[in-house]
Write the structure tokens for this entry.
Amino acid sequence: MRPRTASSRRIPAELRPSSADETRRLGEAVGHAAEPGDIVALIGPLGSGKTTFAEGMARAIGVRTWRGSPSFPLMQDYGRETHARVPFLHADLYRLTDPTSVHDLGLEDYLRGEYAVAIEWPESAIALLPADRLTLTFAIDGDARRIRVSAAGPRGRALARVLAA
């Protein structure tokens, strides 16, 4: 039997990480595969693992100075991080209540293909996001976590496939 390559792996419909460390490792898998222009939308309630996933992604990209969730500044640009192999932006749009205010952030500048981008609470920016993306919907199920995987476009599907490893 031949080993399955990333392109032959099926996209998982749902993941059930057993711990924060496992959620972080899933983020690392996506981070290792991330390229400039990749978008990962992270949807779900507070405490469901979105920031932990983004942290894993950032670490795999090479970010050494993780600053946590950018809830107050809304966006954390790791583009000048000297050890990052890909410019990385982590956005947390939780505090945006008016969808028109997303335009004031300058998020569109980061969506032009130079950065790998992880966006928590992306609902207010959905109209700006390219269709080619990985969308992960996090849920809390008692003490467990569930992550529903949805991918569109070639890069979104490529990122989703690494989660099947």
